[in-house]
Amino acid sequence: MHSLALLLTIPMQAAPVAAPSSSSPATATPSTWGAPAGDAVEPRGDVLRLEDALRIAIRKQPALLTARAQVEAQLGRKDQARAPMLLQIGGTASVLHAYGAHGAPTSAGATGAGSAGSGAPRSEYDIFSFNATATQLLWDFGVNYRKFEAAGSQAESLRESERATELSVLVNVRRAFFLARAQKALIQVAVETLSNNEKHTKQVLGFVSVGTRPEIDLAQAKSDVANARVQLVTSQNAYEIAKAQLSQSVGGVEHEFDVADEELPAIDGEDLPLEQLVTRATAERPELAALMRQREANELTLKGLQGAYYPTLSAQAGASASGLSADSLVPAWNVGAVASWPIFQGGFTRGQVREAEANIDVTAAAHEAERLQIRYDVESAWLSVRGAKATIAAADEARVNANERLRLAEGRYTQGVGTIIELGDAQVVKTNADATLISAQFNLSSARAQLLSALGRR
């Protein structure tokens, strides 16, 4: 005879790289989660609600922090792309100590006052030089402007990817929360199973002591108690592991906690036809928006590279002052325009253009693949919700019947017409029925969490 504790596990989704939305996360409502009557499991620390877990994850989860940092880094690259279009001003100042004939050329480009022949006297002297230059890009056929625009579209793409990361993080938190909640409910099942088996053992002991039952019944009852204790320890350990997984999914809970008795309520539209849900998801999922922005960035990059086939026109101005002392500097200035045209670079620009054209095709294919993935995500979650609802109804009915079977078996054994095997089997069936109902309720909340993510909702 064996008692069975149902241990639940879930795979955690890897978060893609993805500003949090301002909308509130889905609220949760209290639930008994099919926990049997009896002593409640006493919490050993603060009670962690689902809403709190989601809030912690948005603030602390490393995947989200990484995604936000990547957006900031891309905004920095956008600023870098804009810089060449703005006025460029630079200056230098130097003071050199030299030895030679005054009037000889120097590294600073200055000469001493007067002329100096080969026989001129030589001595040590200082050379002061100050230079300032200004350059302004006038026209480059959109090369730099397109780079700037492309960097902006890339930043928007990363913002959408950040939203996708947030959705992935939140669905992992919800599933980990409900897994921990289910494991906590299984502890209560194990507590009741142990209590029932201990009650049965006391009854069997009384019957054996007066000789109405064989000693093998007592041995079997004691074995059932021992198995129930093992089941309780296993369930408690599974709950601790589930809490550790929940803590990891939110980015770390820094204190001991118990999960609140909550479940995910019905999602708006979960009973709609599949095609309507797919249409909604296609309009809302940030992954598609990120790919659209990425395609924009690639197209702008292509236009900018094509501009490199043509000349660049810039305006320049400079001023300088140099001399042998700071109070006798000789000024100079210049203004002008510069046109540069890379006539032939060995096909370098053509190679860049070819790469950019291919990147556009890659993004288009990725967009189609993501559209198919979204349809699968929605359909899978939608079917899981429907299946979980049907399973809960059947599991609840099975639990009612299992309770009645145990009641009848206890009565038959007390009256002397039932066997210890019949009684033990009835207890196993009740334990399994309780665990099955808990599993079904976990599956429903988990499926709803997945459907929320599939629809692009927080």
Entry summary:
With 458 residues, the chain is of the alpha+beta class. It contains 8 helices and 8 strands; from the N terminus they run E-E-H-H-E-E-H-H-E-E-H-H-E-E-H-H.
Describe the fold and architecture.
The protein is of the alpha+beta class and 458 residues long. It has a single domain, classed as Outer membrane efflux proteins (OEP) (Up-down Bundle). The protein has helices at 50-60, 62-82, 143-209, 215-250, 274-284, 286-307, 348-415, 420-454, and strands at residues 29-30, 46-48, 88-101, 122-139, 257-259, 262-263, 312-323, 330-340. The strands form three sheets. A four-stranded antiparallel sheet has the order 3-4-7-8, with no helix packed on it. A two-stranded antiparallel ribbon has the order 1-6. α3 runs antiparallel to α6, α3 (143-209) packs antiparallel against α8 (420-454) and α6 (286-307) packs antiparallel against α7 (348-415). The model is unreliable at 1-7, 9-32, 35-43 and 104-116 (pLDDT under 50).
